[in-house]
Amino acid sequence: MEKYIQVITTVESKRDAERIANVLVEKNLAGCVQILGPIESVYWWENRIERTEEWLCVIKSEQSIYDEVEKTIKENHPYEIPEILAIPVIKGDKNYLEWLSKELKK
């Protein structure tokens, strides 16, 4: 199962999230990208606490193409230091994972 990952990133607008999602799916780097939001993020930036409305992208992909996923996100991301985290999928529905692999190989 560890061949599958979910990659998450946050952006400042729904339009940015949609752009990243579209590029990843069009390039067959993601079988699906879910866009959730708006969400509120609280974090340290340049020595002060910030509160920002953001949109979360949950990207379904495979570990073997992570580097290309990360590169594509960075090329389309508006942040100076974007959050890009890959989380391994430990278990999942066999039919869903077969579908995901098929979509990534187009």
UniProtKB/TrEMBL annotation:
SUPFAM superfamilies: GlnB-like. GO terms for molecular function: copper ion binding. Pfam families: CutA1. GO terms for biological process: response to metal ion. Belongs to the CutA family. This is Divalent-cation tolerance protein CutA.
